[in-house]
Amino acid sequence: MKKLIRLSVLLLAAGLAVDAHAVLRIFATVPEWGALAKEIGGEGVDVFIATTGQQDPHHVQARPSLIARAREADLVVATGAELEIGWLPLVQRDSGNDRIQLGQRGYFEAATEVALLEIPAHLDRAEGDVHPGGNPHVQMDPRNIEAVGAALVERMAELVPPADAATFRLHWQTFDERWKSAMAGWEKRGAPLRGTLIVVQHKAFPYLEDWLGLVEVAALEPKPGVEPSVAYLNKLRAQVTGRPPKLVVRAAYQSPQAAEWFSREAKIPVAVVPFTVGGSAQATDLFGLFEDTLDQLLGALK
Amino acid sequence: MKRISRGAAVVSAMLVTVPAFAADPDIVALREELAEVRQIYEKRLSTLEARLAQYEGKAARSEAKAVSAEVIARKAVVAASQKPASEAAFNPAISAVLMATYGYTGRDPNHYAIQGFIPTGGDVTLPRRNFSLGESEIGIAADIDHLFRGQLTLSLPPKENTIALEEAFAQTLSLGSGTTLRVGRFFSGIGYLNGQHAHAWDFVDAPLVYKVMLGGQLHSDGLQVKWIAPTDLFLEFGGELANGGPFPSTDRSENGATMYALFAHAGGDVGLSSSWRAGVSWLNTSPRDRAYQDMNRLGNAVTDAFSGRSNLLIADGIWKWAPEGNATDRSLVLQGEFFLRDEQGLLRYDLTGAALSGDYAAQQAGLYGQVLYQFIPHWRIGYRFDWLDSGSHNIGLVDSGALSSFDFPLLGGFSPKRHSVMLDWTPSEFSRIRFQYARDDASPGRTDNQLWVQLITSFGAHGAHHF
Asked: What's the DSSP call for residue A263?
């Protein structure tokens, strides 16, 4: 009994460890928006990130821990474009938190701030895991990060006292300046990639391609979210002989088999890009995400 | 237009200045000169007019072009910003679930019974033999306004060709402070599996303990309040007041609630790879004349009925593991629930015409435990163990010697068991094919081998699944 009491006290203490001093409590669905919110908010905000860079953002479960954190959040920062449709609506509703419901100021969607690509002309589940609003993997273009940040800082500022809002805006200005110069550097480094033909594992990179001028010849997944078979990969390899790709690109969270098989058969290298903050050891923040992405792409092509 | 008038003015001025003398040689010369000038000017005028006409035509054409381009562009912008006004614009999310099953059972499912427990009158039988359609479901859900969300789930049992109302409730969105209120018909929040729709189950049928203690699944008409504690550890407390229609309660014409439920759940993550949820629930109800059919020792049909108090305690737990929390490739799920029921009251024994009544008390228990392992993407194997204990029945009519325990054969002590294994393939989030084998010892001496092949599909709006 004593043990039980001690255990329950411990559990309770762990449970009550909510940061009561935070100016703003943010619930980010994916690491990139969590990182962005941290850049803007600095020390003053408590940022909880629902997934890690090693997890598939399509397959997240409405875990109890997510409901508990959403209950206390002032602001949910999501990707939108239906990336989180399988779990976030449930977490929002079950949290009993009126501030973060759809249509409230405490719910922010990144995808509404950027021009979406790959908006399907034909909507049918036979096409695989398609997103009606367009491809949701917008974070792979640093220009989108900037556009989302510019909107996010205003939303965050709206939810805090004026003094904190001014701090957020100052943080954002500093970040934005660094970001702009970093982008110029990346674009210079990435110039040799322009026009490079690539094969992607999942249709996760239209924004990266758009930014760096990479040309996607094919995707290894026959349909978005559907695992390729060896027979399909063979067919694909024959198909691309007319326009031989230089590179296979896959995100770090995806299983390596298909990309490695294709790389072996087609004798072209694989570039494993971090895809989000935490996707690789180097991608510790948003700058690291793009540094490492370029390192991987350029390194593989050498 | 301006140019024409200017030209005309010049010519007419010249004509006016010419004097009207006829025979004078000067006049003749002048006339000739004039005719010449007239000719020249007429020529120039006509060229000018022709050019003018040409310019005018061009201008008109380009103007028309510019206007039409602008109109088209504006129309396009307007069209893009406009959705066709229609009554369907606010259609709710609609989804449908179809389940098709092929079943093989060693024994006739129509004589299926679970020994030692008062039959629930609910859904305890097996899915049908041969090809059959499971319960199809139609779900309709939408935010009603800024305060409420509504959900309606219809189930279509294939045997009866009827429509049953599985769930129909409104839930608050804006109470805040972690509080959610639900009103209507809903799956009770007790236990773990009770809140899940059949298509989300990991096996073809419900655990035995759900069949004997909740008649398959408990949905009640009433009010539910849930509160999430403001802690990083997930702590949820809930209570329900309901009109006890379904098992273990009975329909009673009373103004007050006749079924009460309380539940508490805790949950969280352990590292990146594991997450868990555990809880306890209590269900209290007072059935009146909860009748069931049995056969006495002489082989005559009797109607027995229980009236009294029924208390049910449930402990549930689930633990999920996936490497780095990425369940796409591999994952493991352990899940189990333990039920303890205490019923006390009167049992009526009714052989047509002659009814006897005596005390009744029973403490019964049951559990299931299951493990699911996803070994490669889209493929899972699973094993489930079911165990029930009919426990101790104290039947007053037997103790007093008025009747013998053979007059209550269904209540004879037994410990039903079942082992189930399954393999399923989930090619997408919307379809699943499952193979299941079960060795079922639900009643003594009637070991049954059951084989199921099931196709579960859902289409329409993309639903979200609970943990």
From this structure: H
Q: Which of A166, A184, A202 is the last residue of a domain?
A: A184
The owner of tokens 């973060």 is: A100
Phi/psi region, residue A73 (left: phi>0; alpha: psi -120 to 50; beta: rest), is beta
Between B39 and A8, name the one with better pLDDT.
Answer: B39
Residue of B233, B378, B430 to mutate for A, most A C-beta atoms under 10 A: B233
Q: Give the predicted TM-score (pTM) of the model.
A: 0.83
Q: For residue A84, tell me if it sits in a domain.
A: yes
Q: Return the biggest CA–CA distance within chain B.
A: 164
β-pairing verdict for A24-28 and A75-78: parallel
Domain check: are B224 and B298 in the same one?
A: yes
Give me B439's structure tokens: 């060795």
Q: How close B462 comes to chain A (CA, Å)?
A: 7
Helix (H, G, I), strand (E, B) or coil at A241: helix
Structure tokens at A238: 């024959």
Pair A15, A36: CB distance under 8 Å: no
Taking the Cβ of residue B174 and every Cβ of chain A, the question of whether any pair is shorter than 8 Å is answered with yes
For residue A36, give the DSSP letter: H
**Residue A139 to chain B, least CA–CA distance (Å):** 20
What is the tens place of the pLDDT at every residue in B51-85? 777 777 676 666 666 666 667 766 666 655 555 56
Probe site for chain B from A60, A63, A127 (most B CB atoms < 10 A): A63
User: B267 and A55: CB-CB below 8 Å?
Assistant: no
Q: Supply the range of the domain harboring residue A200.
A: 190-301
Does residue A49 lie within any of the structural domains? yes
Q: Which of B233, B235, B464 sits opposite A85 (nearest CB)?
A: B464
Residues A204, A221: one domain?
yes
- Which pLDDT does position B85 carry in this prediction? 62
Residue B193 has which token pair?
């599996």
Are A144 and A54 within one domain? yes
Please provide the distance, in angstroms rounded to a whole number, between the alpha carbons at the two ends of chain A. 65
Say if residue A205 is in the same domain as residue A97.
Answer: no
A164 shares a domain with A228: no
Residues on chain A touching B179 (C-beta within 8 angstroms): 96
Query: What CATH number did the domain enclosing B384 receive?
Result: 2.40.160.10
Domain count within chain A: 2
CA–CA distance, B402 with A234 (Å, rounded to integer):
80
Residues B20 and B162 in one domain: no
Same domain, B134 and B26: no
Sort out which chain B residues have CB atoms less than 8 A from A225's CB and list them: 428
A55 vs B326: CB contact, 8 Å cut-off?
yes
- In this predicted model, what pLDDT tens digit does every residue of B238-296 receive, in sequence order? 999 999 888 888 888 888 888 999 999 999 999 999 999 999 999 999 999 999 989 88
Q: Do B464 and A129 touch (CB under 8 A)?
A: no
How many H helices and E strands in chain A? 10, 8
Task: Spell out the residues 6+ positions from residue B51 whose beta carbon is closer than 8 angstroms to its own.
Answer: none
Last residue of a domain, one of A184, A202, A224: A184
Asked if the bond preceding B25 is cis, omega within 30° of 0, the reply is no
- The residue of chain A with its CA nearest to that of B143 is A102
B291 lies in which domain range?
94-460
Taking CA–CA distances from A101, the nearest residue in chain B reads B173
B chain contacts of residue A226, beta-carbon cutoff 8 Å: 427-428
User: How many angstroms from the chain centroid is the CA of residue A157?
Assistant: 23
Distance from CA of A118 to the nearest CA of B (A): 18
Tokens of A87: 């779990």
* ipTM of the complex in this document: 0.86
Q: What is the rounded distance in angstroms from the CA atom of residue A165 to the CA atom of residue A156? A: 7
Task: Give how many domains chain B has, as a whole number.
Answer: 2
Answer whether B375 touches A (CB < 8 Å): no
* Separation between Cα atoms, residue A99 and residue B126, nearest integer Å: 46
Q: Do B465 and A253 touch (CB under 8 A)?
A: no
